[in-house]
Design goal:
337 residues; mainly alpha; three-stranded parallel beta sheet; two-stranded parallel ribbon; 13 helices; 7% strand; binds tryptophanyl-5'AMP
Length: 337
């Protein structure tokens, strides 16, 4: 029986190896919660990963590693559909249709492309990197997703998805659900621990500012304890004047479920060191079982692969139907069977 629950879809790149704290708090944590209330589709986006050069052996290993981390974080294949993007060929197929609908200027305005291509030297960026957001549009529209749980940095891509869904529907008739971003305010953007003016990310952060979930817990504790704060001493949530402390409070609050006001009261009159020591402990308690669980899934690649195969089969059933409708609406001649 098809589910009557609203649908969510999201994806994560397998490129970095370990997920970082921004990935977890900004997105994956919400994925875990939403599988209880929504018809949820989550994927490891290996096709997105190859928009920049990848070592083939590492890519394959990192794709399994990403799936293992998603399971370790709490995704349950009985409650959600977990799959690898390249296992569902409809993603690339719908992306072509969307490529033919998106404007060159519109794609050129994507800030992530501008940032990433600037880093590699504008002339060296691949065409794949340029059309990356359009593949993401296809990812979302294939599943008729109502909501897309992501961090703030993906908002513009969801806007593009909405624009292209509207455009397709307007031109060819009602076909795609127009999705909404699902971005939680408190964790929309987790900042680098050494430079709280930039978001935590594998490419921009210094190693000390980046919390990798699979790091040795001692390293994690050390990074938290040496987080940059400010020259004041008051522990208060004030993103403008105290971005470092505010970032630590957001992280602390989300991991423990304590409200920020409650933490402010608890740490009144205490030094930054006390906050950092306690948060380091909270982090270690979180990452230690996460590492163990990830390793358990990796130790049994056969089970992992068959679980992903089942996920792909479930995903394909939905994706194939949407693609067939889209092909038909566009006017492609169906192949005779
Ligand atoms: P990716 O792999 O870069 O990141 C995965 C998720 O982590 C979030 N995130 C953060 N959230 C808060 N603070 C941070 N510092 C932080 N860093 C990363 C991201 O917002 C993201 O939600 N293009 C996507 C993958 C994708 C996708 C999709 C997402 C492909 N197709 C379809 C949604 C729907 C990306 O590169 O995410």
């Amino acid at each position: 029986m098809p589910s009557t629950r609203p649908r969510v879809l999201s994806g994560i790149q397998p490129t970095a190896g370990s997920f970082h704290l921004g990935n977890y708090l900004g997105a994956v944590r919400q994925w875990v919660a939403l599988q209880e209330s929504h018809d949820a589709f989550y994927m490891v986006v290996d096709l997105h990963a190859i928009t920049v050069p990848q070592d083939p052996v590492e890519l394959r290993a990192n794709t399994r590693l990403a799936a293992a981390q998603l399971l370790a974080a709490g995704l349950d294949p009985e409650r959600c559909t977990l799959f690898v993007q390249s296992h569902v060929p409809e993603h690339a197929q719908l992306a072509w249709i969307m490529n033919c609908l998106a404007g060159f200027g519109e794609a050129s305005r994507m800030t992530q492309f501008k940032d990433k291509s600037a880093k590699h030297g504008a002339g060296n960026a691949t065409v794949g990197l340029f059309t990356y957001p359009i593949l993401q549009v296809a990812d979302i529209l294939l599943y008729q997703a109502n909501q897309v749980p992501v961090g703030e940095d993906q908002r513009q891509h969801i806007e593009l998805t909405r624009d292209l869904a509207d455009r397709f529907n307007g031109r060819f008739g009602e076909t795609f659900t127009v999705p909404e971003p699902y971005i939680l305010k408190e964790t929309a953007k987790i900042y680098d621990l050494q430079d709280p003016s930039i978001k935590m990310s594998k490419s921009a952060s210094t190693p000390k500012g980046l919390i990798n979930l699979l790091d040795d817990p001692k390293t994690t504790a050390k990074k938290v304890k040496s987080a940059v704060t400010d020259t004041d001493t008051v522990i208060k949530y004030d993103t403008e004047n105290k971005p470092g402390v505010s970032n630590l409070l957001s992280i602390y609050s989300t991991l423990t479920g304590k409200a920020i006001a409650e933490l402010e009261a608890e740490y009144e009159g205490k030094m930054y060191g006390a906050l950092k020591t306690d948060l380091a402990e909270v982090m270690v308690e979180f990452v230690t079982p996460f590492r163990t669980r990830t390793q358990q899934y990796l130790d049994d690649p056969e089970t992992l692969d068959s679980l992903l195969a089942k996920g792909a089969e479930k995903a394909r059933a939905v994706a194939a139907e949407t693609l067939a409708t889209a092909y038909d609406k566009v006017g492609l001649l169906p192949a005779k069977h």
